[in-house]
Amino acid sequence: MKNSIALGITGFSLIAVTYGMARFSWGLMMPEVAKEVSFSPQIAGIIAACSYLAYCLAIVFTPLLVSRFGPRMPAMTAALAAAVGLILLALAHSPLMLAIGLFIAGTSAGLSSPALAEAVSQRISAHHQPQVNTVINAGTGAGIIISVPILLALPGGWRMACVTFSALAALCLFLIYRHIPAGTGAKPQRSPLALREWFSPAMIRLAIIALISGAASAAWWSFGPDILGHHLGVNARLRSLLWLISGAAGILAVFTGLLARYLAWAQIYRLSQLSMALPLLLMAFSQNYSGWLIPAVAMCGAGYVTLSGVLLVYAADVLRQAPATGVGIAFFMLAAGQVVGSALFGQIYAGYGAVITLIVFAGMSGGMLFIMPGKQAQENSIIL
Asked: Quick check: pTM over 0.70?
């Protein structure tokens, strides 16, 4: 129990820094950054893409680092990458330096998830692993919650906010050193994963779900503030408040493991997909701000973070011999979907407007209700 709490707090903190601050805070910072560092919308897209690209590269190679050095080294590298990348952002006076800073910061998220999945596999009993993994994954919401008031209220604006985020990332190093195992674990007899395990029906299905779900999530995480501002006429301060609510709702994903005691994982999966689809439909058919936007954005945050936690649990279960690899594949496909979804959303949005685009992306999540991430036998094997 003590191991579960210490590892859960450590992982939750690292995910809060690497995802909530080093990755997702850029969307909220960008309008203020553009006032000091001039760049065109095209350059803005390239800068943002650097974070996604870094995440994809890191999440591919991190399982190799984990198998060679154990989870502590890549976890510490994740904290360092977040700290260094955010400092570079704070010092940036050109689009190139912004891109470099975001690239380095973006690697931190890709390094952290597989490392933490392996740490949980080593330190936590199989009975409690899904619950600890979903608690850790909910750190994304905490990072967003912390980042919003820091960005809005801290003297020095976005630059001082980045310095603060960097300091919080550095603090994670102490927790990682204390509570993340250094070695590869007492599993020397692990045989290499066979090709059929990588391309098993369960893994292929999970990868497809992650790809399409990632694309659907880009509607909110890449274009949410823009939709609120231009389609619904929401002012900048209210947009920040709604973003804060979305992040706060993401913390509800910490209860995913508890919820799994009462609902099947398949039901939680469907609820998370519905929570991503319904708010997009509401925004599509709304023409101005209404009180319904508050629960809608909360559903966006809770739905996405819960879904990523569910995919994490399924991925670790599909490749039980190498949970870091399973999580790496699932999260890579989720990020690749966000890259594709961002580009696709922009094209449809420019050509057909917000209503059609939001309906199309709501349909992506809606379609995933009919594709389940695991067979019934696998569903029964995930026990809390």
From this structure: yes
